[in-house]
Please model this.
Amino acid sequence: RGHRSIEEGVWAMAASRSGGAVGPAKKLKIKPLKIKPKLPANFVEETWSKLQKAIQAVFSEENVAYSFEDLYRAAEDLCLHKKAEFVYENLVHECESQVTTVLGKLTQQKQSTTFLSELEKEWQTHCNQLLTIRSIFLYLDRTFVLQNSQLKSIFDMGLQLFRKQIESSPATERTLSSGLVEMVTQERRGDTQVDRKVLKSLVKMLLLLGLYSKHFERDFLQETQRFYQTEGQEKMAELEVLDYLVHCERRLREEEEKCSEYLDAFTFQPLTKIVEECLLKKHLHTILEKGFGPFMSDLKFQDLKRLYTLCDRVGSLDLLRVALSNYVKQKAGDFVTDNKNSGQMVQNLIDLKANIDKVLADCFDNRESFHGALKEAFEYSINLRQNRPAELVAKYIDSKLRSGSKGGGDEELESTLDGVLVIFRYISGKDVFEAFYKKDLAKRLLLGKSSSVDAEKNTIAKFKTECGSQFTNKLEGMFKDIDISRDIMTGFKNSAQVQSKLKKEMELYVNVLTTGYWPTYPPIEANLPQELREFQEVFKSYYLSKHSGRRLVWQNSLGQCVLKCKFNKASKELVVSLLQTVVLMLYNDADKLTYEDIEKATGIEPKELKRTLQSLSLGKVRVLLKDPKTKEVNRTDTFTFHKDFKAPLYRLRINQIQLKETQEENQNTTERVFQDRQYQVDAAIVRIMKSRKMLSHTLLISELYSQLKFPIKPSDLKKRIESLIDREYLERDESNSNVFKYLA
Model:
């Protein structure tokens, strides 16, 4: 088809030259040459000689006699005339000869530093020379080499020859590897004379040649492990914990920089693992033992965050969590078991919990596992003493809710109560807390000691949210009684029939308490003055007329009076208890009375009478003078009305010693709690045995401990089991006395 086009073209030209006349078509034929063209004599040898001289000039860093264009054309001509294989083989020979000569000279260097420096220079030179040679033989590289997959490109061939020559000399391999590792070690030791350019270049050379893993990485990692094992032991002995952690951070950062600058990316993981293992994980127990406690005590948030980050990095947060738990147990345990500073226990625990919460939030990423460890540690520590912490928490709340307490505003009180509630959650004996809280609440309500009714009700609402309505049922009933009493007294005062029976110079206010809601108070007998007995009878008649079928029992230990007392200097108002009132009213008829006179007239039991007389004659406000002047009240003492008494204030409150906490009163409260617990234990035993029918003693005790929410001794559980056997709820198995059966 191509020949026909040419012939047609020639015909068209002939037609135009003949003036447009169309004649017969003439055909032209292209015939092959009679004699085949031949290459000039010695063409291949001369052309290669030209290229060889250029190669040698490049390797010897001399001026090339020909232009690069001439050399490129020469290499191209040889390839076009099917001499590409010849050219490639001779090029390999020339490159191999050059590499052998250069590296052979380097092996004579005895000092590793000089060897590495010279090798780096020769490597850079070799790479640059290969690029130059490749530009000359670019046609060969892009045709013949590309078409033969088993052949390497000219640049890769040059690198392969360099690698082959290095591997052929074990001494060169050892010198190269050990020299590079030593340079890295010197750099770690702070040697500023290390040539980082040479180090980076040779490591990258090994990467490029594929010798990195075989001839460097293994030795490098082994030396890294030896170096950091030694350094870890030395630094741990000589540095403070904080300085050591900073040192670890710096070392990890330095090794990361090495990986990013010149090491293989795959070296990063094993390298950092070695550093972490040698500097951190191996010494973590010592670090936590020496440093965690001081960091926590001094609230060093930045240092705790650093410690947490490093522990997280090496996967040892469980050790840090254990250290936190041990710290809390030790600190909180010290507060709980310190009898001398029991008054500060609750505040110390609140402060400790607040500080640790801040540490968890700011330093430990609020990890749930740490919060769990904190809860477990507080529960363990607070319940080291079975009942005392519950009692002290109740007393602490009492101190905050009492009138005259040094508390701030409503917001501060709210914050304080929230803090106490946190500690309250950790108490296992919440029934003990309830008993003491109820006793204190009763005194605040009945004696008008509460700073705020709203605060009281808010506190109970918090307990209700935390423990349920059953826990606060009696507490809410106490407030209900106070409100009902207020309504009763309003009706009492507005009753004309009642007012006609009362003396105008006296006032009476009665709180009617439901027995089940309020603490149990021991009855205290006293011969009340005639005026008070009349008031009581009037109120009793009025109340029973409104509420038939009820019985009123007067609690003399809770009564409070305000007396107007005339002294020689001035008149005063005395705020005293009912028992103090009974004693003082005797001095309307006498100025001097013996102990026996007072005992006979009042009918107060000796123990309460002695405390009452002690408060009137030995306290801060001494309206009675005791003879003799001893610190204890004896049956032979005489008490005289202090006519010359004086004080700057008009209204005076005499300390009511009989209403203060006593060891006996606390013991009674604890015993009442235990009695209530007995019913819970009995119910739990029956419930378990009813479902299991038969159970061994060991399994029954274990099941009881899992169900009961308060601490109890095994001996007490044994007593309750024996009690149920006596009452025929259970029986022992005839063949095995340690097995119990349920009796339906």
Remarks:
- Residues 445 and 453 are 9 Å apart (CA to CA).
